[in-house]
Backbone:
């Protein structure tokens, strides 16, 4: 039997349902980077069986993780590493018991934490919605996080803001064990030069200023606020466009209906659902600014994607956006109203004419390989790199 150590990479949720979310992009990009970087450590994606709780090897082909044919479950040995990089919030008692067994054998277990917003901002997640299979998501998330705290040698957070939230939650929660808390910085890749855009997308860009929002449509993202602010601007005769790019998430029916039934839908207002990456690249490269209005985030990947192509960023002033964007964004006050947002859009346009807006080239942009190296550093596995 080989004595080579193994990094088991948990992809349980993404193998069952790949929605193309930001978290799932991180899972794919990090795995691909680890494949490129590791030489002294085997990398095996694994999936938990719902009934037995055991983990089985998975495959990764063409950017998709798939559960393999059931054979023998994995048998980690002392010195191996189990990394729960996926948000498997439906973790079962059987799986928790299996992970306890791994820990007793000397396997080091680590969970990546993207955010704990369902616990710090429950008002945005307290819905029995089809997105959550009409189940109690907050209860499931709480059980998952408690299990992560019990089992983990370390919780590896994607931002310092998330790490602070986790530390506070543990301190305020009775009987919850505190593992070591660490961070690693997410990466970004090259935004491709767009191919010829569809008529629908290309037709948006006609010389009028275009403001784009990117991300799943769900309550905390503040799409309703943006729509009200732009309604005011359109009512005042300003020729501006608002483009919303993202999938319909939970509790999104009202705001999506407000968009699709708007009198200016298809002219000054656009909702682009399930936009392919090459079309999204066109939007990023042709828009005038990214509107990043989310009330709470674990990181904020659209800000990074905008910075890659030099798209200016207009962001709500929340701690994680300050951490990620630094001086590379134009900040709005946290409790901004629709009237104030409308005014800020006009102020930003005037400052741009004067050349006085922050530029997104000040945003730090690590590659996915650099991100994976920071993750390996958090795991204390720098020695497993091909090129440290």
Residues:
């Amino acid at each position: 039997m080989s004595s080579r150590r193994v990094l088991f990479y948990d992809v349980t949720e993404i193998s069952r349902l790949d929605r193309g979310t930001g978290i799932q992009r991180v899972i794919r990009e990090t795995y691909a980077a680890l494949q490129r970087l590791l030489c002294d450590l085997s990398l095996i994606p694994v999936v938990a069986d719902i009934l037995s709780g055991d983990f089985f090897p998975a495959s990764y082909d063409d950017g998709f993780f798939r559960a393999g044919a059931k054979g023998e479950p994995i048998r980690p040995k002392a010195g191996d590493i189990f990394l729960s990089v996926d948000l498997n919030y439906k973790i079962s008692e059987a799986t928790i018991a299996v992970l306890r067994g791994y820990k007793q054998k000397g396997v080091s277990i680590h969970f990546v934490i993207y955010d704990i917003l369902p616990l710090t901002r429950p008002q945005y997640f307290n819905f029995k919605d089809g997105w959550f299979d009409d189940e109690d998501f907050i209860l499931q998330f709480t059980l998952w996080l408690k299990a992560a705290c019990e089992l983990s040698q370390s919780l590896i957070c994607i931002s310092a803001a998330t790490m602070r939230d986790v530390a506070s939650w543990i301190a305020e929660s009775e009987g919850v064990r505190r593992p070591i808390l660490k961070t690693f910085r997410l990466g970004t890749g090259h935004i491709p030069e767009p191919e010829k855009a569809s008529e629908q997308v290309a037709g948006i860009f006609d010389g009028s200023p275009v403001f784009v929002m990117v991300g799943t449509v769900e309550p905390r993202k503040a799409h309703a606020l943006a729509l009200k602010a732009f309604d005011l601007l359109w009512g005042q005769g300003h020729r501006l466009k608002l483009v919303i790019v993202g999938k319909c998430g939970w509790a999104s029916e009202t705001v999506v209906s407000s968009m699709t039934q708007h009198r200016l839908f298809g002219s000054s207002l656009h909702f682009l659902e399930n936009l392919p990456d090459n079309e999204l690249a066109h939007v990023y490269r042709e828009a005038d600014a990214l509107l990043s209005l989310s009330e709470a985030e674990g990181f904020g990947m659209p800000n990074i994607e905008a910075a890659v192509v030099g798209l200016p960023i207009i962001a709500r002033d929340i701690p994680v956006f300050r951490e990620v964007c630094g001086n590379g964004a134009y900040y709005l006050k946290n409790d901004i109203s629709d009237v104030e947002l409308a005014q800020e859009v006009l102020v930003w346009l005037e400052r741009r004419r004067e050349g006085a807006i922050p530029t997104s080239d000040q945003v730090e942009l690590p590659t996915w390989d650099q991100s994976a190296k920071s993750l390996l550093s958090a795991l204390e596995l720098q020695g497993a790199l091909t090129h440290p």
The chain has a mean pLDDT of 93.
